[in-house]
UniProtKB/TrEMBL annotation:
Pfam families named among the record's database cross-references: Ribosomal_L4 (PF00573)
The protein's name in its UniProt record: Large ribosomal subunit protein uL4
Region (Disordered): 43-85
Gene: rplD
Source organism of this protein record: Clostridium fessum
Subunit structure: Part of the 50S ribosomal subunit.
Length: 206
């Protein structure tokens, strides 16, 4: 089992934590991780783009000039694609971009992403994130003490003040155990998690 250091809010090491290999020590499946990221980004797309084809553009019913004898190229409609105001040749239409992964694939991809962060020493555990007040400056100090930037901070349910303190900090995103995902784990340089959050992750995904 992997052991990681546990830090307090001042950035001092106060102990170690043994991580569950069933979650943080699995074999990294890069293919599944890639599939999970592609699915997540695709599922964010609205799919509402739309442009009109020549059959949908109004007007253009009359032939603009006779077929022969004008010196112009023959034209049948002023709403053909080569005309200003004409339809689009292969116009985009609303569609559903949803990609579905089954539950086992999602879990395996998340475990792989967490394991990769542990293997790269980019997984930091803090004792707790209990703030007395909502203070952005205090949260920035904690991040500086831990020497991290662009971090995903995974908190347990009892850290409401920490969540509110972090919302205006650039390159920091807070998440609960139920909302962590593969894309965010890989997007941010470091994953910072409380001991309670780590215990919850192991309970849910082990």
């Amino acid at each position: 089992m992997a052991n990681v250091s546990v830090f307090n809010l001042e950035g001092n090491e106060v102990g170690t934590l043994e991580l569950n290999d069933a979650v943080f020590g699995v074999e990294v499946n890069e293919h599944l991780v890639h599939m999970a990221v592609v699915a997540q980004l695709a599922n964010k797309r609205q799919g509402t783009q739309k442009a009109k084809t020549r059959s949908e553009v109004s007007g253009g019913g009359k032939k603009p000039w006779r077929q022969k004898g004008t010196g112009h190229a023959r034209q049948g409609s002023t709403r053909a694609p080569q005309w200003t105001g004409g339809g689009v040749v292969f116009a985009p239409t609303p569609r559903d971009y949803t990609i579905r992964l089954n539950k086992k694939e999602k879990r395996a991809a998340l475990k792989s992403a967490l394991t990769s962060r542990v293997n790269e020493n980019k997984f930091i555990v803090v004792e707790a994130m209990n703030f007395d007040e909502i203070k952005t400056k205090k949260f920035v100090e904690v991040m500086n003490n831990l020497k991290v930037n662009k971090a995903l901070v995974v908190l347990d349910e009892a850290c409401d003040k920490a969540v509110l303190s972090a919302r205006n900090v650039a390159d920091v995103k807070t998440a609960s155990v139920s909302t962590i995902n593969v894309y965010d784990i890989l997007k941010y340089n470091t994953v910072v998690a409380t001991k309670a959050a780590v215990a919850s992750i192991e309970e849910v995904y082990a």
